[in-house]
Amino acid sequence: MKFSPLVQELIDSLKCLPGVGAKSAQRMAFHLLERNRRGGSKLAHSLSKAMVDVGHCQQCRNFTEHELCEICQSPKRQLATTLCVVESPGDVLAIEQTGEFTGKYFVLMGHLSPIDGIGPDDLGLDILAKHFASGQFAEVILATNPTVEGEATAHYIADLAQEYQINMSRIAHGVPVGGELEYVDGNTLSHAFSGRKSYQM
Amino acid sequence: MKFSPLVQELIDSLKCLPGVGAKSAQRMAFHLLERNRRGGSKLAHSLSKAMVDVGHCQQCRNFTEHELCEICQSPKRQLATTLCVVESPGDVLAIEQTGEFTGKYFVLMGHLSPIDGIGPDDLGLDILAKHFASGQFAEVILATNPTVEGEATAHYIADLAQEYQINMSRIAHGVPVGGELEYVDGNTLSHAFSGRKSYQM
Ligand SMILES: [Zn+2]
Ligand SMILES: [Zn+2]
User: Fold this and answer.
1) How buried is A193 (Cβ within 10 angstroms: 0-12 exposed, 13-18 middle, 19+ buried)?
2) Residues of the domain holding B25
3) Toprim domain spans which residues (chains A, B) (predicted)?
C-alpha cells in the first residue's frame, strides 16, 4: 500500500528540493494538503512561472526574467568601471544591502569544481573574458567565498584578468565585525594579522 | 534591491513549506533554477493537481482523489469489525506495512489541541460517532501517538465509544513513550498491535 497516486506523486516531487528526504517530503505534503492549500497553489503557480520565464542576465548572469537584470539596466551603473565577481545571486543581494558598492557584478553561479565536472565554461568565464576585453573595467574585485574552491576560482579569474591588464583586488578576510577573537578560526586570524592596517586615531 | 520579481515570488512561496525559512527558501529556489528546472516544473504540476483534486475519504478521512480511499473501497475490508483510529495518513501507511491489521481505519488528521483551536469537529469526531452508531464495529483500536495530546485524544474517543458499548483497546507494547507512531519500525509496531490491551477509563 502506498498513498493515493496524487499524494504519492506530490511527495516524490517534493524530494527534488535540496535537503528534503522522504520523511520531510511527506510532512510537507500533509501540511499543505491539510493546512495550507492556498499556499500550495501559490507555490505551484510561482514555480511554474519561474521555471519557464527566469533566465540569466546577458551581462552579469544573475537570474532575471528580462534580457538584462535590474542592476545592469540601471543608468547609474552604465559607466561603472569596477566589476565585482561573486559566486551566487545571494552574494549580490548581500553586497547591495551594504550600500558600499556602485559598480557592476558578474555572477558565476557556482565555483570551479573539477570533482563535480564544473569547469570555466559552466561559470560563464567566456562571457567574463569579453567584459575584460571590452575595456570598460579598470578594476575587478574577486569576491568569491574564502573557501578552497572560491580561492581557486578567484585565482583562475585573476589569471584571466591579468591578460587584459586589469587591476585586481580580493575582498579582505579577517575577524568579522562584532565577532570575538577567541572564537575565530586560526586561518581567519592569520589573514586578519597579515592584512592588518595602520591604526587611525 | 531584491531579487527579480519572479525569483523573489518563488522564494516567498517556498516559505509556506514547514521548516523552510528565508535562507532555505533562497537555497531551494537557486537550486531549482540553476540545476533542476525539470524537477521544479514537475513539482509545480504535482502541487497544482494535488491542491485541487485531493480530498478526504468520506469514510475514513484519509487523503484520496476519489470519494473513497483504496482501503475503504477494498472488498476484503467491507465487513471489518475492527476500527483503528490514527492521527495521520503516515500512520495508516506504517500500520499497513506491518501486514498485521486487516480492519478499517479512521484518520483524525491531527489530535485535540485546544491551544491551536483544534477541537472534536476538526478531527471529524462527528463522522466517527456515526461509524460507532452504525453497529458495524465491535472494537475500536486507539492508535493515536503516545504523546500528551495523543493520549488526551484517545481518552476523548474512548468516552465516545463507550456510549455505544464498543470494546476499546489501546496499542501499548513497544511504542516508545513520547515517540511518534509513523517513525517506529514495523516489528515494534507489530508487537504494539498484538500486545494491545483493553482500554481502562
Ligand atoms: Zn545583470
Ligand atoms: Zn477511506
Assistant:
1) exposed
2) 5-53
3) 81-176
